[in-house]
Amino acid sequence: MTQNSSHPKQRKEQKNRPAAEAFEALEKLYRRVDKEISESGVECWLRGDCCDFEKVDHTLFASSLELEYVRKKHPETFPPDNALCPFWEDGRCVERKRRPLGCRTYFCDGNFAERLQAIYEKYHSEIRELAKRYDIPYSYKPFVLALRT
Hints:
This protein has helices at about 10-15, 20-40, 55, 65-75, 100-105, 115-135, 145; strands at about 60-65, 90, 90-95, 140. By secondary structure, the protein is mostly helical. It has one domain (about 25-145). The strands form two sheets. A two-stranded antiparallel ribbon has the order 1-4. Strands 2-3 form a two-stranded antiparallel ribbon. A hairpin with a 2-residue loop joins β2 (about 90) and β3. α2 (about 20-40) packs antiparallel against α6 (about 115-135).
């Protein structure tokens, strides 16, 4: 017996699956973000301090498109018994390519906070538009918690 691809549940699952084009568009957006941040003058001090979200009392959020992009490479659910990002190892990020917008715009140097927030808002708006364009249901969730549930 073959499965009917027109079954409503299967259609919904296929419709909700982000397209490769959406991930490509997100990668292009991330390249623009990284370029703009680089040109802003802010620098990562490579201490790993700001990425210890528990220590600095920060909750990083990510959109559904960004979460699906990460899950494409890491489909497993990470163990729920740790509040730290599963990509934060020995004080460093080991998944720089797929890190969400919030990671890209979060730095220890508070002198750039206002500028980085403006960059974040600009590109977050574009991510929402990408989700809409590719018919991906939009949500906004705590990144680490979403990876661990």
